[in-house]
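Milestone M4 deliverable, item 7.
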Amino acid sequence: QLVAPRTQGQRSFLAFQKQQGSHSIGAHVRDAACYVAWAFARAYEPSVMAPHVVELAPTLIITALFDRYGM
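Output delivered:
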């Protein structure tokens, strides 16, 4: 399956944060990872995505609730 390797890396990108000097970077990476998750949901059938939702959903929810740069 093409989706499996991508969703494994997706979780690390959803939580990406790197300290650089006195501030941290990573908002753009997390935003792009959320977009990729949305694109997967649009591109693949629900039956293909179902096994991966259990892995991605908690990380997406945590990112949506606690990302300080989120809207």
